[in-house]
Write a structure and sequence with these properties.
The structure holds 2 protein chains of 2 kinds. Chain A is built from 6 helices and 12 strands. Chain A is of the alpha/beta class. Chain A is globular, with a radius of gyration of 21 Å. In chain A, the strands form 3 sheets. A 6-stranded parallel sheet of chain A has the order 1-12-7-4-2-3, sandwiched between helices. In chain A, strands 8-5-6-9 form a 4-stranded mixed sheet. In chain A, strands 10-11 form a two-stranded antiparallel ribbon. Chain B is an alpha/beta fold. Chain B has 3 domains: 130 residues, no CATH class; 202 residues, NagB/RpiA/CoA transferase-like (Rossmann fold, 3-Layer(aba) Sandwich); 63 residues, no CATH class. In chain B, a hairpin with a 4-residue loop joins strand 5 and strand 6. In chain B, helix 16 runs parallel beside helix 19 and helix 20 crosses helix 21. Classes of the chains: A alpha/beta, B alpha/beta. The interface between A and B is large, with 81 and 96 residues. Strand 9 of chain A pairs antiparallel with strand 9 of chain B. The structure holds iron/sulfur cluster. Iron/sulfur cluster binds next to helix 14 and helix 16 of chain B.
Chain lengths: 219, 476
C-alpha cells in the first residue's frame, strides 16, 4: 500500500546517496564457547545474580521439586497449559496427591473471557525454547498451548529448561535454531523477575511482571 | 519540546545551575550509571572491538536503508502487521488518532517511547479527548507531576525518593506519604494493573526492527512494555526510520552495546520480539499490530554524508551520563525532547538552527560523548559542523536555518581575523600592533556572549611567536 508520505520519504531515501556510506570491515568479536556443564553453571550464576531462583534437577524428579516448592510457598492456583510439553507431567503428578497443592488452572480460553480470572492467579508455569549461557537468560516462544500472558501476569513464573537446549550465546541460538527461517508471534528472552531502578536507583523486584522467577534446569 | 520563541537556553541553564537539589540528584545518578557501565565493559580492548562491530553493522544498515525499509514493510505485511508512514510528527499523531477512533478507544496505555515524546503524542491526544497513560515507573512519576522526561533512559532521574513520595501522596487518591521505594513501586504496580486489564490500545517504541523477518524488538526491565504490547486488543509501535537492521544476526552485538551502555546490564530483564498479531488459535496477544515509521527530518540527515552518522544512534543515553554539561544542568534545561550530546546534534537538524541551533553551543567539546558512544558517532565533530553551519562559515550549509547567525559585521570582522591569522606577514604586523596598542579581540558574535559576564581576553605585550624566538626557538 502506498501513501503520499511513503512516496515522499522513499523518494528522498532513494536519492540520498546513502549507498555510498563507507562500511568498515569489523568482525563481530567471537562469543565464549562453553561446555555443557559450564553452560549450566554460567546460566545459573548469572540468573541467580538477577534474583532468579535456579534449581538444577534430574529430569525424572523435577515435578516432585515443583510440588515441594508449591506446598512450601502456599500458592493457591497454578496456571499451566495442558497441551504444552510439560502439561501431562504436571497433571499426572497432581493426580496422585493434591494435599496442600495449588489448584491447577488451565489456560485454554481466549484472554477476552479469561482476563478477570487470570489477574487473580498467583503462579504460572511454562516450558522454554532454550537458554543462553553468556548473558544468563531463558528463551520463551509462547504458543497456542502456552499463551503469552502465562509468563507475565501471575506474580510467580516457573520455567522448565532442558539443559541440552542451552546455547553459549544468543548468536549461537539464532543460528542453531534457525530463527531467520521464521519467527513466532512473540519470542522472549527473560533474565530475571521484573524489576525497576527508576527511583534513586534502588532496585525493586516485581513491577509489572512477575516478582519471582523460578527456573528448573533439567539434566 | 519545540517551545519556539519561549525557549531561552541561557535562562534555563542559570535556573538549573542554581537548583542545588537537582544538582545533587543528577551527580549521584550519573556517577552510578557511569560506574555500572564500566563494570560490564571491563576489557577496554574487547569493548573497542564491539564498538567497531556495532558501528559497522549500523553503517551497513544505513547504506541499504531504503531497501531495508521496503523489506521490513513487506515482511511485516506478510506477517499481518499494518505499516504506516509518517513524514512528520503531525502525520504520525494523526495515524495514532485514527487507530484509536477506529477502535472506539479513549485511553491509550504506553510503554516507554522517545519517538512518542518527539511526537508530543500525549498532548496531541489530550486535545482530541484521549488520555495517554504512561506505564513505565519513571514516566508514570513525571506524568503525574505534569513533567516530561529529563533523560532518555531514566526519565525521572532528576527526582529523589522524597520528591516521588510527595508526588504520589498529592496526585494519587488515598495514598499515604511514604518514602519506602518498595512501597512506592507497589502503589504504581497496583494502579497500572487495573489499567492494563481494561485499556484497549497499547503503544510502544521499537529498539530494533529486523528487516529479514519483520520483527520488532523491545528491551525493558519492568514488564510494562510486555504488558502494553500483549494485553490490549491493539498494539501500535512507533519508530524512527533509522531503527531498521538487516538481519537477526546483527542483533546480538548491538543488544550487548545497548544494554551495557544504557544501564550497565549484560542483558535487560526482557527482550521482547514481536513478529505478528495474534494468530488463529492463539489465546492472547493483540489482534491488530500497527507499525508507524516516522521520518521527521531523518531522510534529510541521510542525504548529508557527515550528518548521516546521527542516524547510527541507538538511543542508549550514555553520552548524557558522560557529559559534563548534562550532569550539571539536567535534561529539562535543553528545552527539547532529546537532551545532552545526542540532543545537541539531533534537535537542530530536526527543528532547524534558528529554533535549536543554540543547543550546539552548550558543549565544552571535551570529547567524552564521542569516546563512549557505542556506535562511534563523532558527536564533537558534528557539534562543530552545526556551529559552523550557524554562521555558514564554510559556504552553504545543509541544515534548515543554516547561516541564521550570519550578519555582515560579524562575517567581515571574522573573515579579516582569519585572513590575518593565516597570512604570516600580516600576522606579524598585526601582532606587533596589537601588542603595542593593547588591542583586544574583535568583540562580536560568540565573544560578545563570552564577555557578557567575563572580561575579554587581552593580547600580551609580546606575541608568543616573538617570545619563543627570544628564548631561542626557531622560526620555521
Ligand atoms: S549518540 Fe551514541 S552515546 Fe548518545 S544516545 Fe546515541 S548511541 Fe548512545
Amino acid at each position: 500500500m502506498t501513501s503520499p508520505d511513503r512516496d515522499r520519504i522513499m523518494a528522498r531515501l532513494h536519492t540520498s546517496g546513502t549507498e555510498h556510506t563507507v562500511v568498515p570491515e569489523a568482525a563481530i568479536p567471537p562469543d565464549s564457547a562453553f561446555d555443557p556443564q559450564e553452560k549450566i553453571t554460567q546460566l545459573a550464576t548469572l540468573m541467580g545474580a538477577m534474583k532468579t531462583e535456579v534449581h538444577v534437577v534430574e529430569t525424572a524428579g523435577w515435578v516432585d521439586k515443583l510440588k515441594e516448592l508449591a506446598r512450601e510457598r502456599g500458592w493457591e492456583q497454578l496456571l499451566y497449559g495442558p497441551a504444552s510439553p510439560i502439561g501431562s507431567a504436571i497433571e499426572t503428578a497432581w493426580e496422585s496427591d493434591t494435599d496442600g497443592l495449588p489448584a491447577l488452572v488451565a489456560y485454554t480460553e481466549p484472554v477476552e473471557s479469561f482476563k478477570d480470572k487470570l489477574f487473580q492467579i498467583d503462579a504460572g508455569i511454562t516450558s522454554t525454547q532454550g537458554g543462553i549461557a553468556d548473558v544468563g537468560a531463558i528463551v520463551l516462544w509462547p504458543t497456542e498451548e502456552e499463551p503469552r500472558l502465562l509468563s507475565l501476569v501471575p506474580p510467580v513464573h516457573v520455567a522448565v529448561l532442558h539443559a541440552d537446549t542451552i546455547t553459549s550465546s544468543l548468536a549461537e541460538m539464532i543460528s542453531v535454531q534457525n530463527w531467520a527461517g521464521g519467527m513466532p508471534t512473540n519470542a522472549l528472552l527473560i533474565s530475571g523477575p521484573s524489576k525497576t531502578a527508576d527511583i534513586e536507583f534502588t532496585l525493586v523486584f516485581g513491577v509489572h511482571g512477575p516478582k519471582e522467577l523460578v527456573v528448573f534446569i533439567l539434566k | 519540546m519545540g517551545t519556539g520563541n519561549s525557549f531561552d537556553f541561557e535562562r534555563n541553564i542559570d535556573a538549573a545551575l542554581a537548583d542545588q537539589q537537582l544538582k545533587k540528584n543528577l551527580r549521584n545518578a550519573m556517577d552510578i550509571l557511569v560506574e555500572k557501565r564500566r563494570a560490564v565493559f571491563t576489557d577496554p580492548e574487547a569493548l573497542e572491538q564491539l564498538r567497531a562491530a556495532g558501528n559497522a553493522i549500523k553503517r551497513r544498515a544505513l547504506s541499504k536503508l531504503p531497501q531495508l525499509l521496503e523489506q521490513l514493510e513487506a515482511k511485516c505485511r506478510q506477517n499481518g502487521i499494518q505499516v504506516h508512514w509518517a513524514e512528520d510528527t503531525a502525520a504520525a499523531n494523526r495515524i495514532v488518532l485514527e487507530i484509536m477512533r477506529a477502535n472506539d478507544a479513549t485511553e491509550l496505555v504506553k510503554g516507554k517511547s522517545m519517538v512518542s515524546e518527539e511526537m508530543h503524542l500525549n498532548r496531541f491526544l489530550k486535545d482530541h479527548g484521549i488520555e495517554a497513560l504512561e506505564s513505565d515507573l519513571g514516566e508514570f512519576i513525571i506524568q503525574l507531576n505534569g513533567e516530561t522526561p529529563s533523560h532518555i533512559i531514566v526519565p525521572a532521574i532528576h527526582k529523589n525518593k522524597d520528591e516521588v513520595a510527595e508526588i504520589f501522596h498529592d496526585k494519587l487518591p488515598d495514598t499515604p506519604y511514604t518514602e519506602d521505594v518498595e512501597e512506592l513501586t507497589r502503589i504504581a504496580r497496583q494502579a497500572m494493573r487495573k489499567l492494563f486489564a481494561r485499556v484497549k490500545v497499547g503503544l510502544s517504541g521499537v529498539n530494533f526492527a529486523i528487516a529479514e523477518t519483520g520483527t520488532l524488538l523491545l528491551v525493558e526491565n519492568e514488564g510494562n512494555g510486555r504488558m502494553s504490547t500483549t494485553v490490549p486488543d491493539v498494539h501500535i509501535a512507533v519508530m524512527g526510520l533509522e531503527k531498521v537492521l538487516e538481519k537477526l544476526s546483527d542483533v546480538p552485538p548491538l543488544l550487548r552495546l545497548l544494554t551495557g551502555s544504557a544501564t550497565g546490564q549484560i542483558i535487560t530483564t526482557y527482550v521482547n520480539m514481536i513478529t505478528s498479531p495474534r494468530k488463529e488459535g492463539e489465546k492472547d496477544g493483540p489482534k491488530e499490530v500497527h507499525l508507524v515509521i516516522l521520518d521527521n527530518g531523518r531522510s534529510r540527515m541521510l542525504a548529508d554524508p557527515e550528518f548521516r552518522e546521527t542516524l547510527l544512534c541507538i538511543r542508549c543515553g550514555t553520552c548524557l551520563n558522560h557529559c559534563p554539561v548534562y550532569v550539571r544542568i539536567g535534561g529539562h534545561a535543553y528545552g527539547h525532547v532529546y537532551p545532552g550530546p545526542i540532543g545537541k546534534i539531533l534537535t537542530p537538524q530536526m527543528e532547524g538552527l534558528e529554533q535549536a541551533g543554540v543547543l550546539a553551543t552548550a558543549s565544552s567539546l571535551c570529547g567524552a560523548c564521542g569516546d563512549v558512544c557505542p556506535v562511534k558517532i563523532p558527536i564533537p565533530a558534528l557539534i562543530r559542523r552545526l556551529r559552523s553551519e550557524s554562521y555558514d562559515a564554510k559556504g552553504d550549509g545543509t541544515v534548515s536555518g543554516h547561516g541564521y547567525k550570519k550578519n555582515l559585521t560579524e562575517t567581515l570582522v571574522w573573515k579579516g581575523w582569519e585572513l590575518v591569522n593565516v597570512h604570516p606577514a600580516l600576522n606579524r604586523l598585526s601582532t606587533k600592533m596589537a601588542g603595542a596598542m593593547g588591542k583586544r579581540l574583535p568583540k562580536v558574535g560568540p565573544l560578545k556572549q563570552w564577555t557578557r559576564a567575563r572580561s575579554a581576553p587581552k593580547f600580551a605585550g609580546k606575541s608568543l611567536h616573538d617570545h619563543e624566538l627570544e628564548k631561542g626557538g626557531r622560526d620555521d
